[in-house]
């Protein structure tokens, strides 16, 4: 077929500025409405900027697996970021491949099993024993503190002269900064004296004091066979990247999973009787509430894709939250049904809570093992009941609760 005969990618023909407002107000439901109405590949505008939304399994799988060829990660978090620098989150090409190769030994099956057995499981038991039963607990703040303590003890061996929990506010604000910077069309260089930049540097400097006084050799560097230099910006960037990636996403996933169990008590009882079904519960929770709700890609050159001609620098959005609610892949997609995983493997390219292709999350096995250990420790000691209204969903840098998540723990 000649180029001039090709049909344009389907999508709304107008409304770019309205779309921008909807995207900022209700991005999840608005993107899902596009996929429901226009299909697996949708063209739309956010203000004056053209985008595509890829939501069908075949479409998503092709884009993610062909990463580094026709498609690359869009430059949201820049390599000039003074805190996370040039690392796995921000780079592409051969530099990214080399960084991935260097950090791969940390997440081999053997090392993940060692970390889970030696650190995560004992910590989970001790932590769960100390949970309060005399009052409702707010799950999200509880897990943010807990996962921060766990990631530092597991990967870095020591909490330093001052507990890292003292820097929780700084970590939260830095993630808040990344979220707003990614969604803003105006991204001033970090050295500009912009008010938002100044606040970022204040929080970043406080977090860096943790490394200024840190003497023990981190476990991850023992595993990688290199030395940790606290004065080296590259080493600090790697450490901060692991902190940011290992804390909030896991805390959010645990929060949503415990809330789902609190509101589905028969599944609590089922896990008490058949703990081997926990994997299905985790898969279903990650389907409904994938921690990373939005992935962006960009074409590197002209591409003929799904019968459409895409020019270079075409911006593409992929939302696991949207794709995981495709009724053709998951019947009754809004329902919490862990039993759907008992007789079927995850559908190819229809389920990707940790991304896919070459840039699939390197720490997936560790994160799932961590979640499994924490939930098992809690369910072995407590029944969980909701103690507040259903939380709203807030799609920030990760998919977090927009309102407090209160539950009551009752000793078994």
TrEMBL record:
Cofactors demanded by this protein: heme
PANTHER family reported in the protein's UniProt record: CYTOCHROME P450, CYTOCHROME P450 12A4, MITOCHONDRIAL-RELATED
Alphabetical UniProt keywords: Heme, Iron, Metal-binding, Monooxygenase, Oxidoreductase
Protein name: Unspecific monooxygenase
Enzyme Commission number(s) from the entry: 1.14.14.1
GO molecular function, one term: oxidoreductase activity, acting on paired donors, with incorporation or reduction of molecular oxygen, reduced flavin or flavoprotein as one donor, and incorporation of one atom of oxygen
Family: Belongs to the cytochrome P450 family.
Binding site for heme: 361
PROSITE patterns documented for this protein: CYTOCHROME_P450
Enzyme class at the top of the EC tree: oxidoreductase
One matching Pfam family: p450
């Amino acid at each position: 077929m000649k180029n001039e005969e090709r049909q344009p990618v389907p999508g709304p023909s107008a409304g770019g500025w309205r779309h921008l407002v909807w995207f900022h107000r209700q991005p999840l439901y608005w993107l899902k409405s596009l996929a429901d109405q226009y299909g697996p590949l949708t063209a739309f505008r956010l203000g004056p900027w053209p985008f595509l939304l890829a939501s069908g399994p075949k479409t998503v799988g092709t884009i993610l697996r062909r990463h580094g060829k026709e498609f690359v990660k869009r430059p949201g978090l820049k390599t000039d970021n003074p805190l996370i620098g040039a690392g796995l989150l921000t780079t592409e090409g051969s530099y990214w491949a080399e960084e991935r190769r260097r950090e791969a030994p940390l997440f081999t099956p053997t090392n993940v099993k060692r970390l889970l057995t030696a650190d995560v499981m004992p910590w989970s038991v001790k932590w769960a024993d100390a949970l309060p039963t005399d009052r409702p607990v707010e799950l999200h703040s509880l897990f943010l503190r807990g996962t921060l303590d766990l990631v530092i003890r597991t990967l870095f061996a020591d909490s330093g002269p001052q507990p890292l929990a003292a820097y929780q506010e700084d970590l939260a604000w830095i993630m808040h900064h990344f979220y707003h910077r990614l969604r803003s069309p105006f991204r001033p260089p970090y050295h500009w004296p912009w008010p938002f930049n100044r606040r970022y540097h204040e929080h970043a400097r406080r977090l860096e004091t943790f490394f200024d006084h840190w003497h023990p050799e981190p476990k991850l560097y023992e595993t990688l066979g290199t030395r940790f230099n606290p004065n080296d910006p590259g080493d600090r960037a790697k450490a901060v990247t692991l902190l940011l990636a290992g804390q909030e996403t896991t805390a959010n996933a645990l929060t949503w999973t415990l809330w789902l169990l609190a509101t589905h008590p028969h599944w609590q009882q089922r896990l008490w009787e058949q703990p081997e079904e926990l994997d299905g519960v985790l898969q279903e929770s990650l389907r409904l509430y994938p921690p990373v709700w939005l992935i962006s890609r960009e074409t590197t050159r002209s591409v003929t894709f799904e019968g459409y001609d895409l020019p270079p620098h075409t911006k593409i959005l992929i939302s696991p939250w949207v794709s995981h609610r495709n009724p053709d892949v998951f019947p009754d997609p809004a329902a919490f049904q862990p039993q759907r995983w008992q007789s079927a493997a995850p559908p190819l390219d229809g389920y990707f809570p940790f991304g896919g292709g070459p840039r699939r999350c390197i720490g997936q096995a560790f994160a799932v093992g961590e979640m499994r250990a924490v939930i098992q420790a809690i369910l072995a000691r407590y029944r969980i009941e909701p103690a507040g209204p259903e939380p709203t969903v807030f799609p920030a840098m990760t998919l977090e609760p927009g309102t407090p998540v209160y539950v009551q723990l009752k000793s078994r």
